[in-house]
Amino acid sequence: ESKREGRNRYSFFDHELDRRLKRKHTIETELRQALERNEIYMAYQSKNDIASGKIIGFEALMRWNSGVLGPVGPFEFIEVAEDIGVINELGEFALRQACIDLQEFQKFSDTTLKMAVNLSIRQLNDDSIVDMVAKGIEETGIDPSRLELEITESLLAENIDQILPRLERLLELGTALTIDDFGTGYSSLSYLTTFPVSTLKVDRAFVKDMVSNEGDATLTHTIITMAHALGMKVVAEGIEDEDQLAMLREQNCDIGQGYLFSKPLTQKEMEILIETHELPETTGFKSKHFRI
Ligand code: C2E
Ligand code: MG
Ligand code: MG
Ligand code: MG
Q1: How far is the CA of 61 from the centre of ligand 1 (A)?
Q2: Quick check: ipTM above 0.95?
Q3: What pTM did the predictor assign?
Q4: Comparing C-alpha atoms, which of 100, 43, 48, 41 is closest to residue 277?
């Protein structure tokens, strides 16, 4: 009896493992050709001034609509892209497209808008990153002070010595540096004073329960106070409801990002949002709370 059960269970796991390996293999194969097949595009999520609600910028988020697998999320494919060595190409595409689209978005707004692009650690492990960003700035004609580079805290913490010189050269180009997912990286805080970080982005994990969990509210408050004392701005990510927004406003958080303001949208949808402050019904998402 139990032997048979064991065998069945084994074959279940075997099957599951097999399925995952197959999917990973397909992702590896398909991802190599995704760019040239135009399956990769950038989505944009707004960053809003917390006090006024106004859109002040965007984060560019990569999307892959695979002909074979359908939509695959960045949590799944970015790591594969690093492993198979296509992250630099994808990163170059992201930066250029984001700079081009920012200039389109700007046509619909009187506020000087900024664009944030995510960089993965593999991209920063390579000297070519500096030339890539410099070339992107030059060829798209974007004002570099309107370009922000987002780097996840945990990755920065692990590799600070190697990537510091490269980050310095990126900053010399005139770009700004944002520490992403701040508070989850278990890092020493000393890099915040030795390095010109312009913005801290409080991880969604703290925002999620801050209204019901006093500890999380204390953490967001403390991060905001510390950042301001060091001359940095704070973005709160993952704001989904009015209560979180109200509390962050009380805590003097500068900038908000999250589904309450906008989901990641296509370039066309974002243009409509900036122009009309309303999303078309076709997006399946209508922000009732959107203001200004
Ligand atoms: P991230 O940079 O921390 O981006 C924020 C993630 O949170 C995005 O997921 C976004 O869609 C999601 N998000 C935003 N607001 C809310 C909200 O209110 N509620 C919830 N539940 N989620 C929200 P996404 O687009 O799946 O991206 C995941 C991660 O993939 C990003 O995390 C980033 O680390 C990475 N990534 C995305 N695009 C790129 C890229 O172009 N290059 C690189 N190197 N990494 C990228
Ligand atoms: Mg980010
Ligand atoms: Mg996060
Ligand atoms: Mg983040």
Answers
A1: 6
A2: yes
A3: 0.92
A4: 48
